[in-house]
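Onboarding guide, step 5: your first structure request.
Type a short instruction followed by the sequence, for example:

Predict the 3D structure of this protein.
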Amino acid sequence: MSEASLSLTPFARPAFRELMNEVVLSGRCIECASCVVACPYNQLELDALMKPRRSPKKGDPADFCPVAENQGCDICASVCPRLAPDRTEIAPRVFGEPVEGLREDGFGRYRQILVARASQKAVQQAGQDGGVVTAMLLWGLESGRFDGAVVSKVGERDCNPEPYLATSAEEVLAAAGSWYTYCANPLALGEAAKRGLERVCFVGVPCQTTPVAKLRRTAREDWLAEPVRPPRHAERQAKHLAERGERVALSLGLLCSEVFTFELMTEKLEGEMGIPLSEIRQFNVKGEVLIYKRDGELVRMPLAEAQTYARAECQHCDDFSAELADVSFGGVGSDGWTIVITRTQAGQEAWDALVAAGWVETQPIETHAKSLQVLKRLARKQRERVPVPPGGRPAFWA
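The system replies with structure tokens like these:
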């Protein structure tokens, strides 16, 4: 059954007031900035702490938006990963229904799971773990499947990662690797729209791939389907969403249990350990924090020390494996290889084409049994750490 033929019940609509009161003011905002990206009226901006707020208007309360009140908008709330609809409700839009052939082993619906690494040593070394995400971006740009990639890149001025739109192999390689600090990647979708890119590959952690899934599907399919707004506003909202959501050709999710505040870098590494940030090439976490310096030296840090800088916002996230991405990737339980979880039909087709083109080498997941065990354990642990919602846990979590 095609997605176009689905008959789906519209969702209840969260409102701007809920976004501000239940997410931002309550401390649950993850700072993904998706609400800012989705707003068609420039009513939202990010404050100094990267939290969304309505552009200040004298006398207005923090949870008031005149467009939401008068024109039937609230699109900002519709893409928030902390508000309804949840992953259970969104899944039929992402995967299609019925979902015969899809499995659910505690880390989201999927088609295939295996391990892989980039075929080229240079790509392995530049990327994270097996360098598979980097390989997919390079292949996509070379083959014309993508005309850009939304990633994060270490800032040249202060080494703080920032959203980045890569459009060449050189730019992809310059942004490869991870620093395990948070970056609002969805902001770069606005840049992609300004530059007129039409086939963008989005790379992000689970709290970013969920709002991107909403931006691509639920906001357009549900919020714009009902004629509750004046035609000129409906047209403006539809155009704005299409400019951001429809240009995402593929969504790649990164396995993530938590990330650290940038103070880990400035206070701990640079201040206490005396390692200039400009000398750090990349990080990895394998039961401990591995710090790779540009001169080849490897510095180790106990994970417990780094976790004192874990972002409090991450405790509100129950999605370890980016369950609504087209393909999910992570380097848990093994060195030099990446777990690959293909989820959607588009993700499977892209993966098969990447393998056929010779960009990666693969092994069955059975050859990395430890990786699969760690994946299941971390996914379960993450789901259980979040308070149980009223009515119990969704069946999707079984």
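Each response can be followed by summary notes, for example: The CA atoms of residues 99 and 269 lie 47 Å apart.
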